[in-house]
Design brief:
201 residues; alpha+beta; 34% helix; 29% strand
Length: 201
């Protein structure tokens, strides 16, 4: 399975129209190769039956190689359906591999390794002589925290687990934000350059 993100960028309405036609051509081509396609996400254009962007999932043997053949700047050659007599006939669309949204990391306390330790500094005789601090490592993510705020080991362990859970959740949230930013950058990108494929209507 693989996914392609097709975008008309900031092009005129004709680019959204071209995307719809290229998408139909791509889906028909995939069917000829015995591949399945499904539209996972889409943003409609201003005109009926047009698309500003579409995320397309392709499944079956050879899906990645097939998608690679459709990756790049695509050109649909046809007169404008909205502006009769307009001189331009080339309408560009981009197609790029889409990275799936990051999956949330499951947090299990069993994945945390605890090591009792001593810490220096003020705190009284008990803190200086007993190993009440804890060094906790979340093995899947590699996060490490040292907690010595409480006088009892079991309380410091509980605080350490909460801190690690929060850091793993923050990592997942940051990954989701980065993925969303990358998708919007692709959608808003102005299409430039020579086409890698030219389609005739």
């Amino acid at each position: 399975m693989t996914e392609l993100f097709l975008s008309a960028g900031r092009g005129p309405a004709e680019c959204a129209w071209a995307l719809a036609r290229l998408l139909s051509r791509l889906e028909a081509d995939a069917a000829r190769h015995r591949l399945g396609t499904s539209r996972v996400e889409s943003v409609p254009g201003d005109r009926p039956a047009t698309w500003r962007s579409v995320r397309l999932r392709i499944t079956g043997a050879g899906a990645e190689a097939f998608a690679a053949g459709w990756t790049g700047t695509l050109c649909w050659q046809a007169p404008s359906p909205y502006r009769p007599g307009h001189g331009r006939k080339n309408w560009y669309v981009t197609a790029r591999p889409h990275r799936a949204d990051p999956v949330s990391t499951p947090f299990h306390e069993a994945d945390v390794e605890f090591v009792p330790c001593r810490t220096g500094g003020p705190g009284g005789q008990h803190r200086n002589k007993a190993s009440t601090a804890v060094r906790a490592t979340h093995r899947p993510s590699g996060h490490v925290v040292v907690v010595d705020t409480e006088r009892y080991l079991h309380l410091n362990r509980r605080i350490a687990v909460d801190l690690l859970r929060r850091r793993v959740a923050e990592d997942d949230e940051a990954a989701r934000r980065d993925g969303a930013t990358a998708r919007w950058r692709t959608h808003d990108e102005l299409v430039r350059g020579d086409p890698t494929r030219v389609e005739q209507p």
